[in-house]
Design goal:
Blueprint (H helix, E strand, L loop, with lengths): L9 H15 L1 H19 L4 H25 L17 H36 L5 H30 L1 H8 L3 H14 L1 H19 L6 H21 L29 H15 L6 H5 L2 E3 L6 E3 L4 E3 L2 E3 L2 H16 L1
Antiparallel strand pairs: 1-2, 3-4
């Protein structure tokens, strides 16, 4: 499984193709994301433990959504059950990925608290008030702590970005999957920078109409993860065009009332029919038994039960039967 390096414009393609996947089934996408949000809110009601539990099982939910994306990409229907389908397979590796990510978050949070100092901790957790001089020191420590948190959070997120997909689609173990995910993001850091900038911009725009835009943005982000996985690991791009429309060649248009000339393949088929009709023998054993008859127009041999019978004559198709009737009508008029 090779990691491809793609150009910067693919960062936009991932979002555009993700939105296309959402647009193909918007209602079910909204239902899946709403169900996931409801689960997260329910677990959040459990103090401390609920947030930890959701972080542990979130890779399982993400893997299920990615399986649904693959089903949709193959022309099948995304369903709400895809959100839970990963609980039947690869549960332990996926939960391990969630556990590693949780441990990383806890370590980063502890490091931020150490850098920020006890004053920042008291102010954030307990609402302790400080004077102006202390506030400047606290703000300086908070800025340093934020930069340190960003410095360590980005690699952790890179390691977790593709790991659920690599576990569920390629049966990789958690550590190799997170390593491969990290190096895949690192190798494509430029398109991911454009991807991140665009997501931040779209998030700001989505919050403007009272957060209503998140109904579209969140499913688009989930779908874009699958699109970026296909692009980087499989070398495939999702086609954002609608259903294929056959191209019309207007140069072949004719303005006459005459029937079109048969194509070379049709001419060859007609020659084969003529050859078979030439070899037809009315005294053959099959014909004698009455199981095989010949079309009155093209003389091709066909089973009697499949032929169209009219006035003791047999025809292989409706077209030849209509042709016979037209010829009869023309003879009557003469």
């Amino acid at each position: 499984m090779e990691i491809r390096q793609v150009s910067a414009k693919h960062g936009w393609h991932w979002i555009a193709n993700g939105f296309h996947m959402f647009r193909k089934a918007p209602m079910i996408w909204v239902l899946v994301c709403f169900t996931l949000l409801l689960i997260a809110m329910t677990l959040a009601l459990i103090p401390m433990l609920g947030q930890f539990v959701f972080t542990l099982v979130s890779p399982v939910f993400l893997a299920g959504i990615m399986i649904g994306c693959r089903e949709q990409d193959q022309g099948k229907q995304l369903e709400i059950v895809h959100l839970f389908v990963a609980f039947k397979t690869n549960v332990a590796p996926l939960v391990t990925v969630g556990g590693i990510y949780l441990i990383g978050q806890v370590l980063i949070l502890g490091l931020v608290m150490m850098i920020g100092g006890s004053q920042m901790t008291d102010m954030l957790l307990y609402g302790k008030r400080v004077d102006e001089n202390e506030l400047m020191v606290v703000m300086d420590n908070m800025l340093t702590a934020s930069l340190v948190a960003l410095l360590f959070s980005i690699p952790l997120m890179m390691a977790a970005w593709f790991s659920p997909l690599l576990v569920v689609f390629h049966n990789l173990q958690p550590i190799p999957a997170m390593k491969k995910s990290f190096f895949a993001c690192l190798k494509n850091i430029i398109p991911f920078q454009l991807y991140g900038i665009l997501l931040i911009t779209f998030t700001i725009l989505a919050f403007m109409p009272y957060g209503a835009g998140l109904v579209i943005l969140i499913p688009t982000i989930f779908a874009s993860i699958y699109v970026s996985y296909k692009d980087i690991f499989l070398g495939e791009e999702t086609n954002i065009t609608d259903d294929y429309q056959p191209e019309t060649n207007y140069q072949k248009a004719t303005w006459s009332n005459k029937a079109d000339e048969p194509e070379p393949a049709q001419k060859e088929e007609q020659r084969e029919k003529s050859k078979r009709s030439d070899t037809y023998n009315e005294n053959s054993p099959l014909a004698a038994e009455g199981d095989i008859v010949a079309c009155d127009v093209c003389k091709i041999l066909i089973p009697k039960e499949e032929a169209i019978r009219f006035n003791g004559r047999f025809f292989c198709s409706d077209e030849h039967f209509q042709q016979y009737q037209e010829n009869m009508d023309a003879d009557i008029k003469k």
